[in-house]
């Protein structure tokens, strides 16, 4: 274990020692992006796997809250809210040299955050990210070589209640994730990460199909994230609609057609994906509002361009027009635009009295 990060040029050697959880493992992690998923990965690696984890963030209210309360408040399914001490600072304040960076930043903020962290990146360090959507890999490649880049997906629901306050949705050990090397060739460090993520109860599955793994999650999110957000419903509420599976199948078929034209072999069949959307919505996370809804309801831009929009662009690349995904992308942007107009007071709020008068007329 001690030499698992040593070996090839530019790689580092990590001393073998027992960590507090009694495992022979001294990999140091640092999380960039202390939001919902960043907290979930970092806190679980720290608490369950007993590993050293630092957190870096750029959102001042989050930094202020964590410093004032000396940690992050963690709940599970809205219960058992307790304080977990963590080390959190800005990229400019950070002086550590982790072995593996874990990156969870919103797609549209990633380039700026990586630029602020650039002085911290050193040869030999690995990067891992399981962000929603597609667009992050190219940005990470600007700083990390392909043989030090591990991507992934997380079927793990988490909500940031506010600065320094996170809610892990689902029972301990519920949910799972996939990991895949950019080179599609797992190495010793990747296997060590799998071991750490397993100890952290994140249930990782290692694959050797880069695009097929990442796109399987993008197509999943292209259904539940976008539809739940547009209609302001939980995943469970969506699944109760009798036409939910038909809608899933329509969006998924088009997404699979685009992927196939690009030579991407998804790790799930179309039918498995329809069933996965249904199962995760109905059984896995019925009470969860997907992360896109959390952005939308807090007045932030959504990641739709990196999910449905990405699928649509993939199709266009092969002269295949994903009409549903293009339309849904527009609808989501329309919803964002109308939300912003209402917030700015330039669109009349619904007036029940006026509505009644119109109906009577
Ligand atoms: C839908 C989801 C819960 C799947 O893990 C997650 O991707 C999310 O909230 O965006």
TrEMBL record:
Stated family: Belongs to the ketopantoate reductase family.
EC number(s) reported in the record: 1.1.1.169
The record places domain Ketopantoate reductase C-terminal at: 209-334
Q: Name one GO cellular component term.
A: cytoplasm
* Xref: SUPFAM superfamilies: 6-phosphogluconate dehydrogenase C-terminal domain-like, NAD(P)-binding Rossmann-fold domains
Q: Which InterPro entries match?
A: 6-PGluconate_DH-like_C_sf, 6PGD_dom2, ApbA, Ketopantoate_reductase, KPA_reductase, KPR_N, NAD(P)-bd_dom_sf
Which biological process, per GO, is one annotated for this protein? pantothenate biosynthetic process
Q: Per its record, how is this protein called by name?
A: 2-dehydropantoate 2-reductase
- Determine if Nucleotide-binding is one of this entry's keywords: no
Q: Give a yes or no for keyword Membrane in this entry.
A: no
Q: What does this protein do?
A: Catalyzes the NADPH-dependent reduction of ketopantoate into pantoic acid.
């Amino acid at each position: 274990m001690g030499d698992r990060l040593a070996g090839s040029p530019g790689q580092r050697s990590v001393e073998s020692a027992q960590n507090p959880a009694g495992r022979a493992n001294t990999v140091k992690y640092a999380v960039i992006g202390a939001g919902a998923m960043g907290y979930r990965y970092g806190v679980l690696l720290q608490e369950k796997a007993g590993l050293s984890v630092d957190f870096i963030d750029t959102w001042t209210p989050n930094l202020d809250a964590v410093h004032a309360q000396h940690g992050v408040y963690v709940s599970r399914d809205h219960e058992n809210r307790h304080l977990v001490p963590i080390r959190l600072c800005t990229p400019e304040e950070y002086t550590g040299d982790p072995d593996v960076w874990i990156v969870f930043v919103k797609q549209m903020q990633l380039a700026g955050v990586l630029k602020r962290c650039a002085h911290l990146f050193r040869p030999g360090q690995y990067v891992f990210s399981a962000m929603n959507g597609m667009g992050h890999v190219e940005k990470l490649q600007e700083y990390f070589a392909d043989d030090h880049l591990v991507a992934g997906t997380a079927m793990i629901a988490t909500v940031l209640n506010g600065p320094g306050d996170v809610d892990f949705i689902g029972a301990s050990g519920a949910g799972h994730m996939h990991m895949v090397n950019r080179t599609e060739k797992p190495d010793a460090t990747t296997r060590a990460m799998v071991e750490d993520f397993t100890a952290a109860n994140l249930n990782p599955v290692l694959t050797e199909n880069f695009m097929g793994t990442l796109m399987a999650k993008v197509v999943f999110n292209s259904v539940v994230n976008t539809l739940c957000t547009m209609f302001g419903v939980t995943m469970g509420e969506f699944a109760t609609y009798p036409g939910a599976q038909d809608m899933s199948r329509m969006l998924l078929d088009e997404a699979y057609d685009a992927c196939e034209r690009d030579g991407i072999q998804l790790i799930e069949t179309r039918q498995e994906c329809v069933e996965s959307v249904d199962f995760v919505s109905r059984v896995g996370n019925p009470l969860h509002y997907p992360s896109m809804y959390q952005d939308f309801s807090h007045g932030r831009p959504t990641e739709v361009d990196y999910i449905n929009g990405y699928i649509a662009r993939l199709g266009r690349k092969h002269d295949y027009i994903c009409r549903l995904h293009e339309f849904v992308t527009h609808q989501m942007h329309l919803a964002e635009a109308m939300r912003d107009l209402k917030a700015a007071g330039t669109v009349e709020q619904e007036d029940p009295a006026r509505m009644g008068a119109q109906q009577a007329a």
